[in-house]
Design a protein that fits this description.
By secondary structure, the chain is of the alpha/beta class. It has two domains: 226 residues, Rossmann fold; 99 residues, Rossmann fold (3-Layer(aba) Sandwich). Helix content is 43%, strand content 16%. Helix 5 links the parallel strand 4 and strand 5. The longest helix is centred in the last third of the chain and has 19 residues. It starts with a helix and ends with a helix. It binds pyridoxal-5'-phosphate (PLP). The site of pyridoxal-5'-phosphate has 21 residues, from helix 3, helix 4, strand 7 and helix 8. The site of pyridoxal-5'-phosphate (PLP) has 21 residues, from helix 3, helix 4, strand 7 and helix 8.
Length: 358
């Protein structure tokens, strides 16, 4: 069943939203990169230019999440993620703008120093209440574990006479005080923007490619595509998790999104495509391919990718082109989801791969 963009956006508009991003974000063809890679036509959706705190996909989600926090009369927002998290920094920035206090649980391996760089520097400037927690090296915290820690912090906050709002990592899964998939809902609207961008050029997208981490962005795009452009497939390039369990999360969020919007789409497992072949050495690990890909896109298009998410997604796109996944006439939209502050903490690895050679 295809519905109209107007109908889908009306359904999205039933959810309260605060106004913190520049909308629509820019959209254009990547002429030189398309020519260089010699494959399909590549377009870019610049969600790195949402405007809040260096921009990124999380600020789109936070328009709905902050509105929910305000509606629930909370005054403290508590969330968690890895040390250099874009999500945590953007949450702190959005929270401060609305007079809310941010508490950030930042997980890091014991041997990773918490230097005031990249997003951590911005967290400090935002005067976020930062709590560093240690994980075993190479291990990602289990979301359930993290939510227990958030619960405990929430009890303390209540004890001090405040009202906490607990948000799951990335604002993706329906957990904590977020009882609707608000992050994904924002990406249904983003898909409509992408479609507008393409249709403004008299084109239809065949694929949308993006970095996927906690699943909300992909779930929203999948619902948008299923409702509005069934011929378009969303390809999520995982930056952290193996595809099996991760695709289950995306499916769970996508179904919750379909239900919240009342679209009746019957979302199935095969609506969700996740590639986990481009993780490299794992979440946040910068290798030579990452450094070279950032250089390539910067030099051809003047666009800076980040090393943790968008460079890995672009590595995936490049490889799918190389292996003949796309037809030459395909139109592929790459979503730049932001994350650029995380470039700088990785300066030494990038320098070593590109300049020192070997
Ligand atoms: C969080 C993030 C993603 C992934 O989005 P999810 O909704 O968590 O899957 C992609 N790119 C950047 C830069 C991010 O910060």
């Amino acid at each position: 069943m295809t519905t109209t963009t107007r109908d889908v956006l009306d359904r999205v508009d039933r959810f309260p939203r605060v106004d913190i991003i520049h909308r629509p974000t820019p959209f254009r063809k990547l002429e030189r990169l398309s020519a260089r890679l010699g494959g399909p036509e590549i377009y870019v959706k610049r969600d790195d230019l949402t405007g809040l705190a260096f921009g990124g996909n999380k600020s789109r989600k936070l328009e709905f999440i902050i509105a929910d926090v305000l509606e629930k009369k909370a005054d403290v927002i508590i969330t968690w993620a890895g040390l250099q998290s874009n999500w945590c920094m953007q949450t702190a920035a959005a929270a401060r703008t609305f007079g809310l206090k941010p508490i950030l649980m930042l997980f890091k391996p014991a041997d990773q120093p918490a230097t005031a760089d990249g997003n951590v520097l911005l967290d400090v400037l935002l005067d976020a209440d930062i709590r560093f927690l240690e994980t075993e090296k190479g291990r990602i915290v289990k979301p359930g574990q993290a939510m227990d820690i958030l619960d405990e912090a929430g009890r303390d906050v209540r004890g001090q006479g405040h009202t906490p709002y607990l948000v799951p990592v990335g604002g993706s899964l329906v957990r904590g005080d977020m009882d609707k998939p608000l992050g994904a809902i924002s990406y249904v609207a983003a898909f409509a923007e992408i479609l507008d961008g393409m249709r403004g050029l008299n084109l239809e997208p065949d694929y949308v490619v993006h970095a996927t981490g906690s699943g909300g962005t992909q779930a929203g795009l999948v619902i948008g595509a299923k409702a509005l452009a069934p011929g378009c497939r969303v390809l999520g390039i995982s930056v952290s998790d193996p595809k099996g369990p991760f695709a289950d999360d995306v499916l769970e969020i996508a179904r919750a999104t379909d239900e919240a919007l009342g679209l009746g789409l019957e979302v199935m497992a095969d609506d969700v495509t996740v590639f986990d072949e481009y993780l490299g050495q794992g979440y946040g690990a910068v290798d030579k391919a990452v450094a070279e890909t950032i250089r390539l896109v910067f030099q051809t298009e003047g666009i800076v990718l980040d090393p943790v998410y968008t460079a890995k997604a672009m590595i995936g796109l490049k490889d799918l082109i190389r292996t003949g996944f796309f037809k030459p006439a395909d139109k592929v939209v790459f979503v730049h989801t932001g994350g650029t502050p995380a470039l700088f903490p990785h300066r030494n690895e990038i320098f070593n791969f590109l300049v020192k050679k070997g």
